[in-house]
Design goal:
The chain is an alpha/beta fold. It has one domain (2-213): 3-Layer(aba) Sandwich (Rossmann fold), CATH 3.40.50.170. The protein is 36% helix and 23% strand. α1 (13-24) links the parallel β1 (2-7) and β2. α5 packs across α6. The longest helix is centred in the last third of the chain and has 28 residues, at 186-213. The chain is globular, with a radius of gyration of 17 Å. The two termini are 12 Å apart. It binds glycinamide ribonucleotide. Glycinamide ribonucleotide binds next to α1, β5 and α6.
Length: 214
């Protein structure tokens, strides 16, 4: 069975979408491990409820500087080793709010994918052209849903891409556009983006699993 490790930092609604598809028999894959750097990530509870293996790999607090860099490198190593112990075919970053360096990515070459709650272009550029031909900024970083609202963008959306060392970049696997409504708040927009993300993550994982199996 195509094995998936899910890394998350928060609510885990995308993990839930994967687990529901797995239970319905439509995923063609099995979530075998859920990992978080946050003990209070609700996604860990969702995994425990299903009887899945979970790992909490805390990021040690350290002041900026060489000590922090060393602590961070050691943490990435622990994260990679714990994940690799479950021999995943695919590592899914589903709301994982830490940037991973090549030190982690090299453990799973070409096998890490990320969900991003904004539209990213295929060329790694600064703009994205919507299906209606509108050119909007390609929003990267941790606060892109709020940015889409504050910039007054007419449309935003979500992207699933393979992870490379460049943050919020890499070969695109799927995207969906979501209109931004005049009275949207970051929370209301994010809810509608998540509806699309839940659909897309299941489609992408199912298609990667199918490809590996064929
Ligand atoms: C999702 O919207 C995902 O795209 C985003 O976090 C949310 C997680 O939701 N990821 C990032 O912002 C990564 N930089 P969930 O915890 O309910 O699945």
């Amino acid at each position: 069975m195509y094995a998936i490790a899910v890394l998350l930092s928060g609510a885990g609604s995308n993990l839930q979408a994967l687990l529901d598809a797995e239970a319905a028999g439509t995923l063609g894959a099995q979530v075998t491990l859920v990992v978080s750097e946050r003990a209070d990530a609700y996604g860990l509870q969702r995994a425990l409820t299903r009887g899945l293996a979970v790992a909490h790999v805390p990021l040690p607090p350290a002041p900026r500087g060489p000590a922090r860099d060393a602590a961070r490198a050691a943490w990435e190593l622990r994260l990679a080793a714990v994940t690799a112990a479950f021999t995943p075919d695919l590592v899914v970053l589903a709301g994982f709010m830490r940037v991973l360096s090549p030190a982690f990515l090299n453990w799973f070459p070409g096998r890490v994918i990320n969900q991003h709650p904004a539209l990213l272009p295929a060329d790694g550029g600064a703009t994205y052209t919507t299906s209606a031909g509108l050119v909007i900024p390609a929003l990267r970083g941790a606060h892109v849903v709020a940015e889409a609202v504050h910039l007054g963008l007419p449309v935003s959306g979500c992207t699933i891409h393979r992870v490379t060392p460049r943050v919020d970049d890499g070969p695109i696997l799927a995207r969906a556009e979501v209109p931004v409504l005049p009275d949207d708040t970051p929370a209301s927009l994010h809810e509608r983006i998540k509806v699309e993300e839940h659909r897309l993550i299941v489609e992408v994982v199912a298609s990667l699993a199918l490809r590996q199996g064929s």
